[in-house]
Amino acid sequence: MSYIQSIEITKFDKNRWVVSTPQGNHLLINERTKFLLLILKETKNKDEALVKFNQTFDQEIDIKTFEGIVQNKFKDSDILLSDTNKKFRKRSYMSLKVKLLNKKVAGLIAAPFGFLYQPFLFWLILSASLIGITFIGWSDFSFEKSLIQPDKVIIYTVILCLTMLVHEVGHIAACRKFGIDHGEIGFGFYLIFPVVYADVTKIWTLDKHKRTIANLGGIYLELVYASILTAIYLYTAEMVFLVASVFVFIKALTELNPFIRYDGYWVLSDLTNTPNLLPKANGLISYVFSKKNNYSESAQQWQKKHFLLFAYGVFNWILITTYISWILIEKWDDVVSFPSIMTRATKAIIMLDLELFLIYLKWDNIIVLGFYILVIKFLIKYLLKIYKRNRSVTKLDLNGLSQVR
User: Fold this and answer.
1) What is the pLDDT of the chain when averaged over all its residues?
2) pTM of this prediction?
3) Is 244 in contact with 236 (CB distance < 8 Å)?
4) From residue 296, how far is each of 301, 307, 397 by CA, in Å?
5) Do the domain assignments include residue 222?
6) Distance CA 265, CA 270 (A)
C-alpha cells in the first residue's frame, strides 16, 4: 500500500492487538481496526484495498470516502507514510535522558543471564531468593550492624551502583530470552529522582505471562544478585555483604510500588490488561464526577475491572493528598523558605562551592522540592486543560487505539 508504514501487529489479549511502528510507537487497537490495517497492509493499491474493505465490512463506499476513513482513523498516529509525526510522538515519563550503554553492548552483557528467564526456573529462583534473603536477613541483620564504616564506603558504593545496572540488565535479558528487540541502557530523571533505565518498549508485543516476567525481570535479577551477596556473607562472615544484600532486597521491594511508574506499576498493568493504567484511572474518576455522568446508567454498565480501576485511581489520589497535606502541615516553614534556599544553592553551584551546596542538599529540602515539582506539574496540566478548552482540537479516534509504554 502506498501510504502505510511497515507495521507489525501482535495479539495483546482476547479482543485487542498491539501495532508496532518503525518509529518505535506501540498502539492498542480493537478487532475492527486490526482488519482495516491488515487490508491496508496486504493490498497492492488503493483500489484493491477499497474492494476488500467493502467485502469485509459489507459496505459500498467510493474511493474518496474510503480515503477519508483511513485519514480520519490513522492521521497523526505514526502509521501512515504521510504522517509528519509531530503531533503523535513517543511519550516519556522521564526527562534529561542520557545513553550509557548502546543496544549492542547492553545485549552482550545481558546474554549470559538469558537461561534464568525460563518460566519455571524464573518463578522457582524468585521464590527461593525471597524466602532465603528474608530468613537470613531476619536472623542476622540489625540496624546497629548496618552502620556504614568509613573503610567500607567504597565497597558499599560499588555494590549498590552495580545494583542499578543489574536491574536494567535483567529487563534486557528477559527480552533476549523471549526473542524481542530491545534498546539501550541509559540514565535520566523520573520526577526528581535520578534513575537508570532500559528501553524495553517492545515487551508489549509479548503475551501476558511473558510480559509479567519481563517486567519483573529487573527485580528478579536484583534478588539473584542479593542472594549472591548473602552467600558471600555466609562464607566470609563479612557484615558488609549482608547489609548490602538487605539494602538491595529493600530496594527491590520498593520497586513493586504500583502507584509510581516503577516495575510494580507495569506488572499491575499487565495483570489487569490495562495499558496506560494511571491515565485511565484518572480519566474514569473525572468521568464519575463530571456533570455528563448518569450515575444510574454507569453503575449498571460498569464491570468488575471498572470498579478496580476506580479504586486504584481513588487510592492514588488519597496518597497524593496525604503527601501534600503532610508537607503543608509538618513542613510549612521549609516550604516558605525553600525559594530562598534554592537561590543560595544555585549560587553555590555557580561558584563551584560543593561544600556549601551539600549543606543545602539535605533530606528535608529534597522532600520539599518534590512537593514543588508536584504542584507545578498539576498547575501546568490545569493551564493546558484550560487552553485546550478554548481552541479547536482534533482528537485521534481509532476505535480503542491508544499509545502504550
Assistant:
1) 80
2) 0.71
3) no
4) 9, 14, 27
5) yes
6) 9
